[in-house]
Amino acid sequence: MAKVGLVVISHSRPLAEAAVELARQMLPGREQAIEVAAGTDDGGLGTDAVAVSEAITAADSGDGVVVLMDLGSAVMSAETALELLDDDVRERVLLSPAPLVEGLIGAAVVAAGGADRDRVAAEALLGLAPKQAHLA
Amino acid sequence: MGDLSVADAVGTAGLTAWVHEYARAIAEHREELTELDSAIGDADHGSNMDRGMTAAVAALEATPPADAAALLKTVAMTMISKVGGTSGPLYGTLFLRMSGAFGDGSPTAFAAAFRAGIEGVVARGKAEAGDKTMLDALLPAADALTEAVGAGQPLDAALRAAADAAARGRDSVTPSVARKGRASYLGERSAGHVDPGAASAVLLVEAAAATLPGAGS
Question: Which residues in chain B land under pLDDT 70?
């Protein structure tokens, strides 16, 4: 059973923590690594690629990491963080273009169930499907 | 090649002066940059850059770097970590790639390192000339610098030409519609506004022109 770690990057720490809280609601009593890199260190809005690289390292147990992010600098900080990682860790990391909240919830459920990295990433990308189907 | 005067070699003294001058200029233009960004972005460019450059100066003072490459890397890592907005990864990558490419500090080597830094910005931001970004100032600056040092001009004249080219590049895209970043959400409404990233990039090249020539190595 794989243990894929998740990382949430947001401009806002409250936004990231609330997204994690929503996702953990789907995982009662289950272990799942979800690390947050969000906000500036003075409590403002922003992203920090060094913090992202540390969050990836903390979430990585060797089975891969899927990173979800909001927009703008979160995306570039995620890419910059990859440059700061060791080659072997970098290869295990996948940056997901999935929507942050919906993608995280989908990813968390299958990651906690032991899915491998690519399966977790695929589930994140399907995060919008239930809402799209309902509103169609 | 003509004789290279010692005053034209760029080393830690010149780079330190450059970083300090850029931090000073950013602080001076902080409100103006944020105002430009409030017109077409998320109103944080001046404060973000000021936070990053203030931290970069503090980092250099806390641990004086051993050489030019280490100095540029310290600036890069500080900006990547402290700026908070997109300019952090972009300027951070510029300094990081300059650090990796920094040669003997001759004008030719400096121009090559500067270009390597800007190619890093291109790779990181996936923007092109005309997208109304910092690259519209930086790409013409790199071209002017390369051309001037290639023609054997001294560093002060070459950096002056680069700074002038940067300013012309910034102004050339003011009428354009932004195609990258937060400003792109505004579409046509971004036309007629000075791009804040191009404005801060002009300050970077102006700071280089003001400090690097004759600073010693």
Answer: 1-7, 216-217
Sheet of A34-38, strand order? A34-38, A5-10, A65-69, A93-95
Nearest CA in chain B to A75: B86
Q: CA-to-CA distance for A133 and A24, rounded, in angstroms?
A: 24
Task: Suggest the residue from A13, A42, A47, A52 to mutate for an interface test with chain B (most B CBs closer than 10 A).
Answer: A47
CATH of region B6-211: 1.25.40.340
DSSP state, residue B183: G
A10 pairs with which residues across the strands? Answer: A38
DSSP for residue B184: G
For residue B178, list chain A residues with Cβ-Cβ distance below 8 A.
none
Burial class of B144 by CB neighbour count within 10 A (0 to 12, 13 to 18, 19+): buried
Q: If you average pLDDT over every residue of chain B, what do you get?
A: 94
Q: Which residue has the tokens 């931090």?
A: B23
Task: Tell me which of 3.40.50.510, 3.40.50.720, 3.30.200.20, 3.90.1150.200 is the CATH number of domain A5-135.
Answer: 3.40.50.510
**The complex's ipTM?**
0.88
pLDDT, tens digit, 9 for 90 and up, residues B50-81? 999 999 999 999 999 999 999 999 999 999 99
How confident is the model at residue B217, as a pLDDT? 63
Catalytic status, residue A11: yes
Query: Choosing from A10, A11, A77, A106, which is the catalytic residue?
Result: A11
Domain boundaries, chain A: 5-135
The single-letter code of the amino acid at A48 is D
pTM over the 0.90 mark: yes
Please state, in angstroms and as integers, the Cα–Cα distance from residue B206 to each residue in A4, A32, A33, B166, following that order: 47, 50, 47, 9
Instruction: Answer yes or no: are the C-beta atoms of B114 and B147 closer than 8 Å.
Output: no
The predicted pLDDT at position A62 comes to 97
Question: Taking CB atoms and an 8 Å cutoff, what residues of chain A touch B87?
Answer: 73
